[in-house]
Input
Amino acid sequence: MSFIDSDNFMREQLIKALIHLLAHLPLRWLHRIANWTGSYYARHDNKHSLVTRLNIARCFPQLSTDEQQQLTKQALIEGSRTLFESCKIWLGNKEAVTALIQQVSGEEQLKAGLARGKGVILVAPHLGNWEMLGVYCAPRYPMTNLYRPPRMKALDNIILQGRQRYQQKLAPTDARGIRTLYQVLAKNEVIGVLPDQDPRANSGSFAPFFGIQANTMTLLSRLALKSGATVLLTYAERLPDSAGFHLHFLPAPAEVSSADTQRSVAAINQMVEEAVRTIPAQYQWNYKRFATRPEGEAEFY
Output
């Protein structure tokens, strides 16, 4: 083992140890640590704060500079909360994690969708803590999600097993995994799709998101059209005072299932934007959502 490999190994072991430690702390303690972490990031220039600051400035131009700065700080705190909470979700006590779900709204939409017999697509943007959706849904409804292993191999088993212990089924993010999603819907089961990632080349189409052209996946459009499945927007809102989470299930507009792909992706972005505006600080603003630009347009970041 080289010195570089040894350094990487030690770093990964330290991260794993930290995750195990965080997993067993009370939610209120995790949030206090996140308050400090997010505030620290907000006071210093780093990739998280710079991307968050730019995204918020461009997406909320109507806010004053002070308001944008406050939203940036709160978004960095909320992002830290998501990270630390996820450690608890993956490795903490299952019953204690499940008990964090305090309220569920719109679940009847999910049950009605399954009653139609064509499966249900849960559209889960990076809003609140999306890991909580699998905690609640997978034990109640057969559920399959796409899974891409993280760059750090040491985290792979933690995340993989952390999701599987709630009975989630995971499919790879390749052609085989896409076929699996169609098969799952054909069996009248549930799949989860993250709609707000910048897709690979030739896998997306541009549509407005907060008034900015955003490269948006067309996979969701194809799944909805070809399967005839019920499409629901869902997110786990973080409640104040570390009280837990409120899960929301909302019907997607009919245009999401349109044969016109451009019309579909525009509807997808619109429904995600509407949800984000309800709890804007809980959105993952440190992600480079606008990295891919239309031909001839200047770089965003």
About this structure: The two ends are 38 Å apart (CA to CA). Residues 126 and 284 are 6 Å apart (CA to CA).
